[in-house]
């Protein structure tokens, strides 16, 4: 009797042990493993890097001031966490900066103003704002015409990167002459020279960092600063974009007559209508009326096979 009890007890222990082992084998093989704590790869907002000294267009930014450093950090945090937007801008930069930079230098505008184009349009030549501003420099129709650009149903040179850049330079030189500061010139590009002049008179202050501005214009210069800092030091903000979009070499075709059908024109030059519009977004219709025989230069990609 006692022997049977012992045997029964041992049998029960073996069964219990087998059940425990089976449970853990099942759990290991078939159950989902517990998720590890997710740690974002990007810098936390509280850890965003901010330099001790900073210059915009050759002018020192007074980062020792609480209002200035906090406004700068705000835009660094915002743009550090706009991942898809900021990555796309960094990847696009070589393609458009190689056009913009030589023009800025030739026109006597500080190189940092290429970042104004970044915050205006995200380097999108086809950008159109809710207010009707167009192109990489976001020019309004009236302003563009005043600056010498052609804006008609057939041709809108606000979409022409080189010509629009020169128009923006003309505005910035005039603003710098008026306000004596590139920082103020940048602010006026957003709010207008009249607005900035009124605020200077009202507040009896001329230094940009002493002026109380509206939300949009108040953030404008700091956004420009933030994009400069991030795009020149992407590794400090955990942006590792890899290969950037390549520069697209082109040749120019001189045109002094009307073009009845731009699709036919494109095929005559070995490209599609889509590719023609990609490189010449300033051509707004399917034809080009040119009764006055103005001279236009239409861009054709050198590597035509890359677009077929």
Automatic annotation (TrEMBL):
Q: Where is the signal peptide?
A: none
Keyword set includes Transmembrane helix: yes
Alphabetical list of Pfam families matching this protein = SLT
Q: Name the SUPFAM superfamilies on file.
A: Lysozyme-like
- The residue ranges of the Transglycosylase SLT domain are 101-207
Q: Which controlled-vocabulary keywords does the entry list?
A: Membrane, Transmembrane, Transmembrane helix
Residue ranges crossing the lipid bilayer per the database entry: 7-26
Quote the CDD domains the UniProt record gives. MltD-like
Spell out the InterPro entries in the cross-references.
Lysozyme-like_dom_sf (IPR023346), Transglyc_AS (IPR000189), Transglycosylase_SLT_dom_1 (IPR008258)
- PANTHER family (UniProt xref): MEMBRANE-BOUND LYTIC MUREIN TRANSGLYCOSYLASE C, SOLUBLE LYTIC MUREIN TRANSGLYCOSYLASE-RELATED
Family statement drawn from the similarity comment of this UniProt entry: Belongs to the transglycosylase Slt family.
Which protein is depicted?
Lytic transglycosylase domain-containing protein
Source organism per UniProt: Butyricimonas hominis
């Amino acid at each position: 009797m006692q022997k049977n009890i012992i045997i029964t007890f041992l049998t029960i222990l073996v069964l219990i042990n087998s059940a425990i082992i089976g449970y853990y084998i099942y759990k290991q093989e078939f159950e989902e493993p517990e998720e590890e704590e997710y740690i974002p790869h990007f810098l936390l907002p509280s850890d965003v890097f901010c330099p001790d000294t900073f210059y915009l267009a050759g002018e020192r930014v007074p980062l020792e001031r609480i209002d200035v450093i906090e406004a700068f950090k705000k835009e660094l945090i915002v743009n550090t966490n706009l991942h898809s937007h900021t990555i796309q801008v960094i990847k696009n930069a070589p393609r458009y900066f190689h056009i913009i930079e030589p023009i800025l230098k030739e026109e006597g505008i500080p190189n940092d103003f290429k970042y104004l184009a970044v915050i205006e349009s995200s380097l999108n030549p086809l950008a159109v704002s809710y207010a009707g501003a167009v192109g990489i420099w976001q020019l309004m129709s009236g302003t563009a015409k005043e600056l010498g650009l052609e804006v008609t149903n057939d041709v809108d040179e606000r979409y022409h990167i080189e010509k629009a850049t020169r128009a923006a330079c003309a505005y910035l030189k005039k603003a710098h002459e008026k306000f004596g500061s590139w920082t103020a010139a940048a602010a006026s590009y957003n709010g207008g020279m009249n607005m900035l002049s009124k605020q200077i008179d009202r507040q009896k202050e001329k230094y940009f960092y002493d002026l109380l501005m509206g939300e949009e214009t108040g953030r404008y210069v700091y956004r420009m600063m933030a994009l400069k800092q991030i795009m020149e030091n992407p590794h400090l903000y955990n942006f590792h974009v890899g290969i950037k979009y390549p520069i697209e070499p082109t040749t120019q075709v001189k045109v002094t007559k009307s073009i009845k059908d731009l699709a036919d024109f494109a095929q005559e030059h070995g490209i599609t209508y889509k590719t023609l519009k990609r490189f010449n977004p300033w051509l707004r219709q399917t034809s080009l009326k040119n009764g006055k025989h103005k001279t236009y230069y239409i861009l054709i990609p050198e590597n035509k096979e890359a677009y077929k």
